[in-house]
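Quick one - inputs below.
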Amino acid sequence: MEDKISLLNKHLKEKGLKSTRQRDLIVSEFFKRHQHLTVEELLERVRKIDQGIGYATVYRTLRLLTECGLAFKREFGGSARFEHSTDHHHDHLICLDCGKIVEFENDRIEKLQAEVCQKNRFKLINHKMELYGYCEKCHGKHHE
Amino acid sequence: MEDKISLLNKHLKEKGLKSTRQRDLIVSEFFKRHQHLTVEELLERVRKIDQGIGYATVYRTLRLLTECGLAFKREFGGSARFEHSTDHHHDHLICLDCGKIVEFENDRIEKLQAEVCQKNRFKLINHKMELYGYCEKCHGKHHE
DNA sequence: AAGAAATTGAAAATCAATATCAATTAGGAA
DNA sequence: TTCCTAATTGATATTGATTTTCAATTTCTT
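Output:
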């Protein structure tokens, strides 16, 4: 976490940007736990510590983190969600009931995707794959 | 195509809804070709025939078609796109340059997706998979 | 032909995200 | 440390896609 903040500060310095109280707070709250947060959710957490933080500042800070490769923007459903960037590519399982998000990797699927692209003479750049269903807990609920 | 319209009319009658000039026009334009149209694009086509058709009516008619299973809403990027519903599930390849959309089916990928869900104790309901890249034509352009 | 109920189009509302702008703040230079 | 300029902030306005509202119009059953 400290390393993330110092990496960001380095990035800021290089770009002639400034480190601010708000920025630091938002970033440290973002990196506290590995989750998939919406702007709204992060704002809520941040405001527990500093009432005055504005909407736009959270948007701007997350864009900053995304630009310097520390965060990744995912567009599931309604609002975008941001996750910590990882070195490995992964996709997501999403519970339709409680919203739980599970990350997974599957090389065999990736390979087949590449095959599909070749067959259709597409040069694959990236993909989006989301599996929607019910997690164990929620599936249980529906059977009571 | 005639069958689609009569299917829709049957649906309308069952629900106590009415068949109108606007509705008929929008539906028949929608089913003219198998494409992935935005509301905007469909509106444009429809207005070539009837100037006065409103924005909201196209939205409403597409929702109607979606509800009765004749159309399918896809949420790629900016605006939603609607396709004719088909009996087989499929996913999409999308060109990042020209926007070309190619449909594909791949049972092996579907099977692996089901496996991933099982492993994570999710009950799979549906999924979204989009492969983004450059189609043959556009890839060519980038190498000139 | 009449009347109730649905539909239409225009404009307003909504929702997420971005841009604007005056006031504030950060941080290098003096 | 103090100054100064450029960056940042928060509030608000704006955008773009979609939905809702509402009065006027149209459909369809009787």
